[in-house]
Design a protein that fits this description.
Elements (H helix, E strand, L loop, with lengths): L5 H19 L3 H19 L4 H35 L1
Helix pairs in contact: 1-2
Length: 86
């Protein structure tokens, strides 16, 4: 929702925090469904920028982080395979 009132943002933060805390112990993946909107809302509340810009930044950061993580996993696996051969 573009330009929501501060009260709506605070309610969104409270709901996101509650959902994340409830889910984190049992299912980290499901907790991320709450953490991501929570992080975006807190950033928007502290430093208002257009919501589409926040979403684009978040997607780019997620993709970049995923690529780095995948490269690291592949490098470690390759190193373990080489070590196990010798």
């Amino acid at each position: 929702m573009p330009g929501p009132p501060v009260a709506v943002l605070i309610l969104d933060i409270a709901l996101g925090q509650f959902g994340a805390e409830i889910r984190i112990g049992r299912d980290y993946g499901a907790a991320l469904l709450f953490v991501t909107p929570l992080a975006l809302t807190v950033v928007h509340l502290t430093s208002p920028v257009p919501v589409p810009a926040l979403l684009v930044d978040r997607v780019l950061e997620t993709v970049l982080g995923s690529v780095f993580a995948l490269v690291i996993v592949l490098l470690v696996r390759a190193r373990v395979r080489l070590k196990n051969r010798h």
